[in-house]
Amino acid sequence: MNGARCALLAIVLLFPMRAWAWGCKGHETIALIAEKHLTPHARAIADQILRDSPIDPSLPRYCKNTGLDAFTDSSTWADDYRSQRPKTGDWHFIDIPRGAAQGEIEKYCRSDDCVTSAIRDQMGLLRTADSPKQRADALRFIIHLVGDLHQPLHTTTNNDRGGNCVPLSFFGQSPQLTNAQNETYAPNLHSIWDFGILERMTDGETVAQFAEELDREFRGRMAPWQQEGIRLDDWAWESHEAAERTAYGDLPRKIPIETPRAGDSCAGDNHIGTRMLSLHERVAGDYQNAAASVIREQLAKASVRLAMILNSIWR
After folding, report:
1. What is the pLDDT of residues 170-179, one digit of tens each?
2. Do residues 32 and 306 lie in contact, with contact meaning Cβ atoms separated by under 8 Å?
3. Cα–Cα dist 103/138, whole Å
4. What is the share, in percent, of the chain residues with pLDDT greater than 90?
C-alpha cells in the first residue's frame, strides 16, 4: 500500500466514525454491480425516483467520492442519515448469537428493528408510498441495507457488538483505547471486516474497476443465486455462518462462545472488551487471504440480490 493510503487507513481504523459495513468502497461497489443487473424498466424507475427526491444537500456525507450516479451515491446515505434519525441505527444489523441453531430469526430482532425487518418494511414502502421522499428514502435504505445484511459481522454477536469488542493487531497496527468508559479499542474485528481488509485488498483500484472485476469473477454464479429467490432470513443465516466459519473461526487465538447476555457496550459481560484485549489477537496476510475470498463473494451476492429485489418490485 502507498504511504498516503496507509495513513488514511490508520486514521479510519483508530478513529472510526461509526460501524460502517463495507465502508464507502464496498457499498458503492455493490450498487455499481447491481445496476448492471437491473432490468431496463427497473433501472428507469429507480432513476426517476431518485431524481424526484434527491439527497438533501445539507446532509453531511462521510463518503467523499464524487462523480457517482444517484443510485451509487445513495448506497452510503443510510449511514449518514443516522445522524438525523438515530433510531434507524438498529436497522443495520441483527444480533444472532454465536452458536445459535438455525431457525426462526424473529427472536433476534429487537422490537422488530433489525436489518431483515427493515428491508421488508422498506420494500413495502417502495411499493405503496405516495410521497416521492418516502419512496426515495425507501429505495436508498434498501440499496444500503442489503449490503449490510451480507457483512458477516452485521449478523453475528458474541456479546461483543458484532466483533467491535474484539481488539486486535492488524498488520502490526496495535489496538489503541478509543473509549475508556466503554472499553473500546481500534483496530477491532468488526472494523477490519467493515473496511480494513477491503481497503487493503483493493489498494490502487477505483470503485468502478473493482466492481467490474467482481462482476466478471462471479458472473457465472449469479444465475443460481437469482434462482433461489428472495430469502432474507436465509441470507442472514448464511452471513452468520460465514462469520462463525471465517471471521471468528480463522482467528489465530480461538474465542470461546459466550453465554448470551444483554449489554450496550464493551464494558458489559464482565468487561468483554478488556478480556478480549488480553488474548492479543494478531492478524495479517493469512487471515486477510481467508477473509478476502468471503468478502468478495458476499459483495457479489449482495449486488445480484439487490438487483433481484428491485426487479421483483418493478416487473
Report:
1. 999 999 999 9
2. no
3. 28
4. 88
> Residue 112, Cβ neighbours under 10 Å: how many?
12
CA distance 225 to 213: 18
From 3.40.1280.10, 1.10.575.10, 1.10.10.350, 3.60.15.10, which CATH number describes the 3-313 domain? 1.10.575.10
| Residue 110: per-residue pLDDT | 76
Q: How many CB atoms lie within 10 A of CB 288?
A: 18
Whole-structure pTM value: 0.93
pLDDT by residue (tens digit) across 227-264?
Answer: 999 999 999 999 999 999 999 999 999 999 999 998 88
HSE at residue 285, side-chain half, CA atoms within 13 A, is 0
Query: What is the pLDDT at residue 276?
Result: 98
- pLDDT higher than 50, residue 4: no
The Cα-based distances of 140 to 96, 146, 214, 267 in angstroms read: 25, 10, 22, 34
Domain ranges of the chain: 3-313
Secondary structure (DSSP) of the chain: --HHHHHHHHHHHHS-SS--TTHHHHHHHHHHHHHHTS-HHHHHHHHHHHHHSPPPTTS--S----S--HHHHGGGHHHHHTTT-GGGGGGG---PBTTPPSS--GGGSGGG-SHHHHHHHHHHHHHH--SHHHHHHHHHHHHHHHHHHTSGGGS-BSSSTTTTT-BEEETTB--EEEETTTTEEESBHHHIIIIIHHHHHTTT--HHHHHHHHHHHHHHHHHHHHHT---HHHHHHHHHHHIIIIIITT-SS--PPPPP---SSTTHHHHHHHHHHTT-EEE-HHHHHHHHHHHHHHHHHHHHHHHHHHHHH--
pLDDT tens digits for 82-137?
999 999 999 999 999 999 998 888 889 977 799 999 999 999 999 999 999 999 99
